[in-house]
């Protein structure tokens, strides 16, 4: 079976991506501890890997310049609304997916993996520019031009299996695959229980409601 590196945040999108990837690849997960307030997601990511018998690495990286409500203690995580329009919210982390994909593609090349899987999607999302198809197309070209495998004609593939799925569709796919959603974490805030107010919590709640499935995390 071919190898793949899966970027795993502990959220439901990356969990579904992991379970989709496991059907096609021998997976190794890469989990980032980058100073995020939602440290609970790290615990969930590790639990998902252990339960699925997937090898994983936790990468601790330092972003002392902050620049996001997810990192900066002085910036409050907004709540009470689901973003609309073209505004990029304060929860955007500067260049996060560029950083994560760079680590993941390096890891993939080093172990002979042919793919990096990431759970980004561009339908129900927070206007993040690094979650769009054109960004991933550009990064694929970067790998083609700037890596050994790329110049040899076999670049690491960037696989985005849920990119054109809605949150509702992601939940339905996860239910089909047996994803343990009670072991995932979506909340942006620090704590052991979801705040229920941040945009990520609201998106999750709406998606489960639209899917007609009760969120097992809330009863766990």
In brief, what are we looking at here?
The protein has 220 residues and is of the alpha/beta class. It contains seven helices and five strands, in the order E-H-E-H-E-H-E-H-H-E-H-H. Helix 6 crosses helix 7.
Structure characterization notes:
With 220 residues, the protein is α/β, with parallel strands linked by helices. It has one domain: Rossmann fold, CATH 3.40.50. It has a five-stranded parallel sheet with strand order 3-2-1-4-5, sandwiched between helices. Strand 1, helix 1 and strand 2 form a beta-alpha-beta unit. Helix 1 packs across helix 6. The mean pLDDT is 94.
Name the features.
220 residues; alpha/beta; Rossmann fold; five-stranded parallel beta sheet; 7 helices; 5 strands
Question: Which helices and strands, and how do they pair?
Answer:
Elements: E1 3-7, H1 12-22, E2 26-33, H2 40-52, E3 55-60, H3 96-111, E4 115-117, H4 133-146, H5 148-151, E5 157-159, H6 167-177, H7 199-211
Parallel strand pairs: 1-2, 1-4, 2-3, 4-5
| CATH fold call | Rossmann fold
Strand order, sheet with most strands: 3-2-1-4-5
Fraction in helix: 25-40%
Give the overall silhouette.
globular
Strand content: 5-15%
Major sheet description? 5 strands, parallel
Write down the domain tally. 1
CATH architecture: 3-Layer(aba) Sandwich
Reading off the top of the CATH hierarchy, the class is best stated as Alpha Beta
The rounded distance between the terminal residues' Cα atoms is: 35 Å
Rg, nearest Å: 17 Å
Number of strands: 5
Q: Could you spell the SSE succession in H and E letters?
A: EHEHEHEHHEHH
Instruction: Give me the number of helical elements.
Output: 7
SS class = alpha/beta
The CATH H-level superfamily is: HUPs
Low-confidence stretches: none
Mean pLDDT: 94
């Amino acid at each position: 079976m071919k190898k793949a590196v899966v970027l795993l945040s502990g959220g439901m999108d990356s969990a579904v991506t992991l379970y989709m990837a496991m059907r096609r690849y021998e997976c190794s997960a890469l989990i980032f501890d980058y100073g995020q307030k939602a440290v609970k997601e790290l615990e969930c990511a590790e639990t998902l890997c252990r339960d699925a018998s997937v090898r994983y690495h936790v990468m601790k990286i330092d972003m002392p310049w902050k620049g996001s409500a997810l990192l900066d203690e002085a910036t409050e995580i907004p709540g009470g609304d689901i973003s609309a329009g073209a505004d990029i919210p304060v929860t955007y982390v500067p260049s996060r997916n560029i950083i994560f994909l760079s680590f993941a593609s390096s890891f993939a090349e080093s172990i002979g993996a042919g793919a990096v899987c990431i759970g980004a999607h561009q339908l129900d999302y927070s206007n993040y520019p690094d979650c769009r198809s054109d960004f991933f197309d550009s990064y694929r070209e970067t790998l083609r031009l700037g890596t050994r495998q790329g110049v040899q004609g076999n670049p690491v593939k960037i696989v985005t299996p849920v990119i054109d799925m809605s949150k509702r569709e992601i939940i339905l796919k996860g239910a089909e695959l047996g994803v343990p959603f009670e072991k995932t974490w979506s909340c942006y805030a620090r704590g052991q229980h979801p705040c229920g107010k941040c945009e990520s919590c609201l998106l999750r709640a709406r998606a489960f409601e639209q899917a007609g499935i009760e969120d097992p995390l809330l009863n766990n």
